[in-house]
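Sample intake sheet
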Amino acid sequence: MSTGPVNALKDEWLTGNTDRIDVAPALLRSWERSREALGVPTNVREVPHVAEDELDQHLLDLFQAPMSRFSADLSGTGVGLLLADAQGRILGRWAADHDAWRHFDRVGTDRGAVLDESLVGTNGVGTALATGSCVQITGAEHYADMYSDAVCTGTPIRHPLTQKIVAVVTLSSGIIEGRSLLRPMVKTVADQLQQHLLDVASPQARAVFQAFVDASKAKAGAVVGFGPQGLIMQSQGAARLSSADVAVLGELVQRQSGGRFIIELSGGLTEVRLAPVETGAGAIVSLQRGRTSTSTALGPARTQLIGRSPDWMAALHAVARRREATRPVVIAGEAGVGKTSLALGLPFRSGDPGPGAHIVIDTVERTLIGGKRWLRNIAERLQGGAPVIVKGFDALDPAARLALAGLLEMSVLKGPVMLTATLRSAAEAEETAVGLGASHVWVPPLRERTADLPALWRYFTDRAMPGVGLEPHAETLGLLTGYQWPRNLKELHNVVEGLALAGKRGYVLPSDLPERIQGSRALTMIERAELEAISRALREADGNRSRAAEILGLSRATIYRKMKAYKITDS
């Protein structure tokens, strides 16, 4: 139902004409509660606020890291994220583009705003609290007129053990097409936040959280806590850190036991203090400003891996954790997604042996020197203790795979062993890993991390033409985002290199791109959100379309139609 008819129905209801009111019963009950508390909608002229000292800083710190990751995934959609406490008070807001920030400012939604239903009427925060369920309030469905151009989709976050509501997470934007997908998206976010709560509930995680709270009170700057099973906590001061910065700090925690260090983050050289938690459950990293004289310099940093999208960062963290293990890990994904780079922890170039601490063994060598000698070489390298990377495990025939699996099982591994494999799906990766007695990490394809395209473009441009500008026009970036990138990072690199060889400089126009990319339609803001939601559901369902439709709350016909429109495959 469009905003116009809803507005007319609400006007009739307000004047006492309730005979033909055709709106959802839950919405009507919310209007009734709002009228009882506020009178007519025009009585709501502004959003009330509370003082800073009334806001639950611990709750914000607890959810800061996952909320930052989720918001990065909304880049270019015009949709922002809100976190409110159980009283409807806004603790934080996150957005990845200017449209979402402007929307927040337009409706007066900022830190300290109180969106309880009794104060501003029907809305995506207060009504989710009042009903204890997921709601989507669109345009004139809001009670107050000032929200008539907004869509708010919110759901409570319940404590996984007590089921008590501890917060509300809300997706908020202007009125956009395809908003039906925002409901399954916000439910997915809430599920992950509730899992985050469960992770923190473990004794080890509680010890890390308490150390994190103590450090946050003592330090005015940024504080990041690293707990068991990939748990990350960020203080409000650490909100400025990018996901790539957090990944760099995580690498430091993996490599060092404590002390002061100088590392390179996105904002430049930064002094950090690393303090292990006494229980051994994790570590606290505090960032210092303007002090670099008494720390251990780690030396000039090699180029970091590019990207901050959530799925990429999840893969980055997963590989980092496994570098300290002696159980083999299969790093799998489509061709050209950056599997070897993830294994190395820095960009890999063909023919480059990588950093001295790593040993990269290509399965192609087996055809050159013979299977027995190839296995003997691996066996010798496994005893050295340095990380061993077997590149292209999928290219081995069944007999060679079996022989390598036997070697890994018989060997006493003294360092990490990583095997890269070009596979079609995460399910196939898991099956391959099980056959090796290994764990696995799935690397997302480029089409599912389009938020990283600008940074990747700059990286490949700097490699091809150091110091020379080659900037995609806004329309060009839209085409790059809408393209499916079947060859992933290799294809993007070839596009940039081709432009450089052709002598292109300055702005890159759509006509400068290869014809296959010119034919891709630039996605609208909400289409990008739809594409991401459907891709995530398919991954969760291991490619099962019917199951993906259930996850999203859509019909199978709708899923099939949208997969065809976006050229999404089951894998």
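Comment: The two ends are 35 Å apart (CA to CA). The chain has five domains: 3-200, 203-297, 310-444, 447-518, 525-566.
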